[in-house]
Design goal:
- 2 copies of one chain form a homodimer.
- Chain A has 344 residues and is α/β, with parallel strands linked by helices.
- The first copy, chain A, folds into 3 domains: 44 residues, lambda repressor-like DNA-binding domains (434 Repressor (Amino-terminal Domain), Orthogonal Bundle); 136 residues, Rossmann fold (3-Layer(aba) Sandwich); 136 residues, Response regulator (Rossmann fold, 3-Layer(aba) Sandwich), CATH 3.40.50.
- In chain A, 44% of the residues lie in helices and 15% in strands.
- Chain A contains 13 helices and 12 strands.
- A 6-stranded parallel β-sheet of chain A has the order 2-1-3-4-5-11.
- In chain A, helix 8 links the parallel strand 3 and strand 4.
- In chain A, helix 9 packs parallel to helix 10.
- The longest helix of chain A is centred in the C-terminal third of the chain and has 17 residues.
- Chains A and B meet through helix 4, helix 6, strand 2, helix 7 and helix 12 of A and helix 4, helix 5, strand 2, helix 6 and helix 11 of B.
- The structure holds a DNA duplex (30 and 30 nucleotides).
DNA sequence: AATATTTGTGAGAGCGCTCCCAAAAGAAGA
DNA sequence: TCTTCTTTTGGGAGCGCTCTCACAAATATT
C-alpha cells in the first residue's frame, strides 16, 4: 500500500493540509516546515493518488487523441506515428498524459454505436480534460457533441466552423506550389489524385491544384481529377483511371498514393519521370528512399502535433479566452527526381 | 454540470445504492426498479464519474503502453502503428482505455531522469491498472521497478526472466526459415544485417541465422554479420560494410533495413536479386510494394498487440494466478521477387 | 400460524485529496 | 503592553462513487 497524504503528514508532524500545500507549491508554508515535509515525501516515495486528486480538482491532466473510424485504415501511413510522437512529446513537456482512442473496424458490432459508447464513457466520464481530433471527416457527429458538452478540443486539420479551434498546415498553398512546379517544367496535362473529398485536407489540396491551373489561365479538366483515399491501393486505382487520359504529370495528394501511382505507371510500361512526372505530398521518410526519389511537399507534422497540444492546454487552463485559435503552418516544396527536369 | 448518482437516485425515487447496483449489474434489484432507473439514466445521459469510481474501487480501467526512449526513433517503422492498432482494438473490446507513454528525445533535460519522473507520476500515482512494455532494451531499469512495485505488466517481445510475462513472435524460427530459403536457392555466402543486439528481437533473429547455417553444416563467418538498428539508414550503413565481403545474399532483420540495403546495393551498380538476393523480416505493408517486392517473414503484429492486452487484463482482473504466461506466435515465410529463383 | 430463510433496499462510512474558514502564532503599530 | 494586522496552520466538509451492514419485505419451512 502506497502512503497517503495523511501518513506523510503524521510522519512530518504536520497536518494533511500543510502537506497538500507543500505538494502544490502553495507559498505560505514556512521554509523549514516545507523542507521537513519534502524529506518525508522523498523518504516514503509518496505520490499523490491521481484519482483522488481528480475527484477533488475536477482535473485529470490527461488529454485524448481521437482518431476516428474513418481514418484508422490509414493508420499505417507514417503521418500518424509522427503526429503521435509530436503530441506525446508536447504532453510530456507540459506534464500531461496522453490517452489514445482509435476507432477501428476490427471489432464486432455496429461501430458507430461503438464510437458513441466510447464517447460517452471517456468524455462524459470525465476521464479527459480535453481532446485532440485528428483528420475526422467533416460531418463526423463528434464535433457537435464536443461543442454541446463544452469539452475543450482542438482539431488537427482545418475545420470550417467559427467556434472551432484548429491547427493545420497550408494545404492549399502546398498543393499549389506542387502544381506550379510542374507547370514551370512545361507540363500541361497535369492530373491529380485527390484525398478523400469529405476531409478538409482532401478538399484543400484539390483547391490548390485548381488555383495553380486557373491562375495560369488554364482550364481545369475534370477528367484529370481522380479521387483517392490516401492509401497506396487507392492511389493505384486512381492512377488506373487516369492513365487513359494520357496525362504528362500527376500530382498525388499524398506520398503514399504517389508511390501507388508510380507502380501503376510502370506496370503500364511507362517511365517516371520521363513519360509521366509525379509529385506527392507529405514528405514522409520513405519519399527520399523510393525509386525515383519523390518530389513532394513537406509539412511539419510533429510541429502540428505539439502546436495542437499547446493550444489545447491553453484552452483547458484558461477557459476564459473567447478568441478562436487558428494556426496554419507553412508547407515547403522539396524537389527530387520524380518530376524530372523538363526544358521549358 | 453532469448529473451524479445521487441526482439520478432522487429522480428515480430510489437510493444511491440502488442506482449503483443497476449500473454495476448487481443481480438483486427488482426488474421493475431496474427498468425505472435505466430510464432515468438514459434520460439524463448520466455517466459515472471515472475518478470517483477509481477512488472507491482502486481500478481505473486504463492500461499503459510504454515505448521507451531507446526505440522512439524507430517510431516511423510501421511496426509500431500496427502494434498500437492491435492494442487499441483489444482495449476497446474489453472496455479498457489506453494511455500512451513515449519517451522520446525531443525534450530538454536528462531524459532518463525524465523517464523516472514519468514513471513515478503515472505508475505510482495509480493512473494505470497495468502496463504493456514494447521492445525495451534488456537492461532497462523499468522492469525491476515494475516488479518491485507489484504492477501487472506484460512485455511485447521475449524477456528472459522467470517472473515476467511476455508475448512474442517466433523470431528464431522466422529468421531460420528466411535463411534456409536462401540456402535452398543455392546461396552460400549469406550475410545478415542484425537488429540492435541489446534487444531480444535482434539477438533472436541473429540466432536463427546462425542455426540455419550450422544445421546445414556451414560455418558462420563473423565478417558477414553487420549490426543495424532497425532503421533504413542503419540498414544502408550495414550494407555498405558488407559489400566488400561479396555476399550473394543478405538476410536483413527488418524490412525497413532491407529496403535501405537494396538501395546501397543498387547504388553500387549491382542488381537485386540477380547479383545479391535480399530477404527482410516483418512483412510491412510496403514490402509488397517496393521494387522488387520483398521476400520476407510475416509476423502477426496486431495479434501480438491484442494478445498482450488479453494477458494483461487477465493479470489485472485475476491477480491470484501464479503461472507465468508466455505466448509465442508463429511466423511465416512470404516469398516474393527480391530473392530471385536460383537453380539448386 | 409462527418461525426461518431469502431477497431487495437504504444508510453510513470511507476511498485520498483540495479548499474554505477559522484559529493560532508572529509581526507591527499604538 | 495591548491591540491590530498578517502570515501560517489545522479542522471540516465535500468531490461522486462503492461496499458492508442492517433492516424491511417477500417467500419458504415447520
Amino acid at each position: 500500500m502506497p502512503p497517503t497524504l495523511e501518513e506523510v503528514a503524521k510522519l512530518a508532524g504536520v497536518s494533511r493540509s500543510t502537506v497538500s500545500r507543500v505538494i502544490n507549491q502553495h507559498p505560505s508554508v514556512r521554509p523549514e516546515v516545507r523542507e521537513r515535509v519534502w524529506a518525508v515525501i522523498r523518504e516514503t516515495g509518496y505520490q499523490p493518488h491521481a484519482a483522488a486528486r481528480s475527484l477533488a480538482t475536477r482535473r485529470t491532466r490527461v488529454i485524448g487523441l481521437i482518431i476516428p473510424q474513418a481514418v484508422t485504415t490509414l493508420f499505417t501511413d507514417p503521418y500518424f506515428p509522427i503526429l503521435i510522437r509530436g503530441v506525446a512529446d508536447a504532453c510530456n513537456s507540459f506534464q500531461y498524459h496522453l490517452m489514445l482512442s482509435l476507432f477501428s473496424q476490427g471489432q464486432a458490432g455496429n461501430s458507430s454505436a461503438r464510437q458513441d459508447e466510447l464517447y460517452q464513457q471517456v468524455l462524459r466520464g470525465q476521464y479527459l480534460d480535453g481532446v485532440l481530433i485528428s483528420s475526422a471527416p467533416l460531418d463526423d457527429p463528434i464535433f457537435r457533441r464536443l461543442l454541446q458538452d463544452g469539452i475543450p478540443f482542438v482539431v488537427v486539420g482545418r475545420y470550417p466552423h467559427e467556434r472551432i479551434h484548429y491547427v493545420d498546415v497550408d494545404n492549399v498553398n502546398g498543393a499549389r506550389m506542387a502544381v506550379e512546379h510542374l507547370l514551370r517544367l512545361g507540363h500541361e496535362r497535369i492530373a491529380t489524385i485527390t484525398g478523400p473529398l469529405n476531409m478538409c485536407a482532401g478538399q484543400d489540396r484539390l483547391e490548390g491544384y485548381r488555383q495553380a491551373l486557373t491562375s495560369r489561365g488554364l482550364a481545369v479538366d475534370e477528367k484529370l481529377i481522380a479521387e483517392g483515399d490516401f492509401t497506396e491501393q487507392g492511389g493505384r486505382m486512381a492512377m488506373q483511371r487516369l492513365l487513359p487520359q494520357r496525362p504528362t504529370a500527376v500530382f498525388a495528394a499524398s506520398d503514399v498514393m504517389a508511390i501507388g501511382a508510380i507502380k501503376v505507371i510502370r506496370d503500364a510500361g511507362l517511365r517516371v519521370p520521363d513519360d509521366i512526372a509525379v509529385v506527392g505530398f507529405d514528405d514522409i521518410p520513405l519519399a527520399s528512399v523510393v525509386e525515383p526519389p519523390l518530389t513532394t511537399i513537406r509539412q511539419p507534422i510533429d510541429q502540428l502535433g505539439s502546436m495542437a497540444v499547446k493550444l489545447l492546454i491553453g484552452l483547458i487552463e484558461n477557459p476564459e479566452g473567447s478568441t478562436v485559435h487558428r494556426v496554419v503552418l507553412p508547407t515547403e516544396l522539396v524537389i527530387r527526381a520524380s518530376c524530372g527536369i523538363r526544358a521549358k
